Amino acid sequence: MKRNIVIAIARQYGSGGRTVGEMLADELGINYYDNGLVKLASELSGISETMFVKADENILNGKHLLDKVKWKKNIYKGGIIPPDSDNFTSMKNLFNYQAEVIKQLAEKESCVIVGRCADFVLKDYENAISVFVHADHDFLMEQAAKKQAVRGEELAKTIEKIDKYRSDYYEYYTGKKWTDALNYDLCLDSGKLGFKKCVEAIKAYMKVRYGNDILD
Asked: Considering only CA atoms, which of 8, 4, 2, 10 is closest in space to residue 180?
């Protein structure tokens, strides 16, 4: 590509957003990042990966909701807390380091980033495209069944739990609603389009926004 472009993808569980991201990165010949961002943040900060995983588990288990007063204090506003601070390994600073990694990537290369509120972190970056991939219940169930052993009501509950975690994670660090279309440049229904056409839609948007030769 003629310039660095970052595609930040958020997705419902079962929508295939990760698959779309991987396909897009492969077609464009650029790097793909998702959970690997935790390792990069650990390397940058010197903080154990276990601490980052623990912070995610706190949100998964709803522990972040125990103190409502602290909710807004964790909205990402940039910067990092120095090692000599008592809050160096706080949930807020662990996210700060992940955000720092995302910004560094956006400044040096074209890539696809899935999750980690990358759309919010890069909201002021002109070279960032934000995408939300979603689908109807039946499609989510069909796709989720390919990765989960449970079926029926249990599968529906699994999807609901994972999406609640993603929603809580997003709102905790951004103060915004995860499913609000206003947060994204593109909202794509993978159940209607299929994964390949989702990729094509993103590439078409890139051409409209940055010029027909952006992918050359």
From this structure: 10
Instruction: Say what the pTM is.
Output: 0.93
Q: Quick one: pLDDT at residue 68?
A: 47
pLDDT of amino acid 2: 79
Does 154 fall in a domain? yes
Which domain covers residue 194, as residue numbers? 6-210
Beta bridge partners of 111: 6, 31
Which ranges in the chain belong to alpha helices (H)?
Answer: 17-28, 36-45, 49-60, 91-108, 118-121, 137-144, 152-174, 190-193, 195-210
Q: Phi and psi (nearest 5°) for 86?
A: -65, -20
CA atoms within 13 A on the CB side of 166: 21
Contact 123, 174 (CB under 8 A): no
Exposure letters 8-19 (e unless 16+ CB within 10 A, then b):
bbbbbbbbbbbb
pLDDT along the chain (216 residues), means of 10: 93 98 98 95 97 89 60 78 94 95 97 98 98 98 94 96 94 94 98 98 98 92
Are 102 and 121 spatial neighbours (Cβ–Cβ below 8 Å)?
yes
Q: Considering the domain boundaries, does residue 216 fall inside one?
A: no
CATH number, domain of 167, equals 3.40.50.300
* Spatial separation of the C-alpha atoms in residues 170 and 117, rounded to whole Å: 6
